[in-house]
């Protein structure tokens, strides 16, 4: 396995994405690992056999609250280890993190909280960011080759959002959130997409309002981050904006392993 092809995709509901053609879209593609966020389905309603037919083993970590949040990993490579959650009950109850270990590489699907519903959830989001930062660095000490794939719910820089001036105090682009992203990358992680492509106007999420996607008035809030020891292993990175199964689009990484 000299290369691994990884996709990360916030589905905004796995059942809705399947109705919107996700399985057909995946059927002629050859991703080794697919990290899913916002599956919004527990094991009683998530029929994973549809992915079995495409050759994937499916590991899920739904939220306790039905129809909310939740993450999953699909993989064609049998993992050596699967870890659900980060050990903090409040966040694990919301189904925020799942990780697989394949050899010496660890791949996490992560769904960071959104703060868009008000000050209380914004506070939860900032607390989560601090807790996640500590957790991920403890994990990195044990698993030095680490990929964190998912919806971070933060646009990092001005080129990652269609209207930075109007959104400077909006959740997802607040100064303290952007500062956290800078701290995170400075602490030993690479934004793999930006490592490959510095161009503006490339987004991974669009509001359903005001024809935002057709006008490309979006935000780049979905990332695949890699520890810096994998920098030379990055072969390619992309976002597939023509994949329309969700209000997000998939994020892709090809890595030499």
Describe this structure in words.
The chain has one domain: Endonuclease/exonuclease/phosphatase (Deoxyribonuclease I, Chain A). Helix 5 packs parallel to helix 6. The protein has 7 helices and 14 strands. The protein is an alpha+beta fold and 257 residues long. The mean pLDDT is 97. 24% of the residues lie in helices and 28% in strands. The protein is globular, with a radius of gyration of 17 Å. The protein has helices spanning 14-19, 22-27, 49-52, 89-92, 119-142, 175-186, 192-196, and strands at residues 3-10, 33-37, 57-61, 71-75, 81-84, 97-102, 105-111, 145-151, 189-191, 205-206, 218-219, 222-227, 234-239, 251-256. The strands form 3 sheets. Strands 3-4-2-1-14-13 form a 6-stranded mixed beta sheet. Strands 5-6-7-8-12-9 form a 6-stranded mixed beta sheet.
Spans of at least 5 consecutive residues with low confidence:
none
What's the CATH class label? Answer: Alpha Beta
Say what the CATH topology is.
Deoxyribonuclease I, Chain A
The rounded distance between the terminal residues' Cα atoms is 7 Å
Tell me which oligomeric state these chains represent: single chain
**SSE pattern:** EHHEHEEEHEEHEHEHEEEEE
Overall pLDDT: 97
Query: Tally the helices: what do you get?
Result: 7
User: Mind telling me which CATH architecture this is?
Assistant: 4-Layer Sandwich
Overall number of strands: 14
Trace the largest sheet across and list its strands.
3-4-2-1-14-13
CATH superfamily: Endonuclease/exonuclease/phosphatase
Supply the number of structural domains.
1
Structural class call reads alpha+beta
**Rg result:** 17 Å
């Amino acid at each position: 396995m000299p290369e691994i092809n990884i996709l990360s995709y916030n589905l905004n509901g796995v059942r809705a994405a399947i109705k919107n053609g996700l399985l057909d879209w995946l059927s002629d593609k050859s991703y080794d690992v697919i990290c899913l966020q916002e599956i919004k389905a527990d094991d009683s309603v998530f029929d994973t056999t549809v992915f079995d037919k495409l050759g994937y083993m499916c590991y899920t970590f739904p939220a306790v609250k039905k129809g909310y949040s939740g993450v999953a990993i699909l993989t064609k490579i049998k993992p050596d280890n699967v870890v659900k959650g980060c050990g903090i009950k409040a966040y694990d109850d919301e189904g925020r993190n799942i990780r697989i270990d394949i050899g010496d590489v660890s791949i996490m699907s992560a769904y960071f909280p959104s703060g868009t519903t008000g000050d209380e959830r914004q506070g939860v989001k900032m607390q989560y960011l601090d807790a996640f930062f500590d957790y991920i660095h403890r994990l990195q000490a044990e698993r030095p080759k680490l990929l964190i794939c998912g919806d971070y719910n933060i646009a990092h820089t001005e080129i990652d959002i269609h209207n930075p001036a109007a959104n400077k105090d909006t959740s997802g682009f607040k100064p303290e959130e952007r500062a956290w992203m800078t701290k995170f990358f400075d602490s030993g992680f690479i934004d793999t997409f930006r490592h490959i492509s510095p161009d503006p106007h490339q987004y991974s999420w669009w509001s359903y309002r005001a024809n935002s996607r057709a006008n490309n008035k979006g935000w780049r809030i979905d990332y695949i981050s890699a520890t810096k020891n994998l920098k030379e292993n990055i072969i390619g990175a992309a976002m597939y904006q023509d994949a329309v199964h969700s209000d997000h689009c998939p994020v892709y990484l090809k890595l030499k392993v």
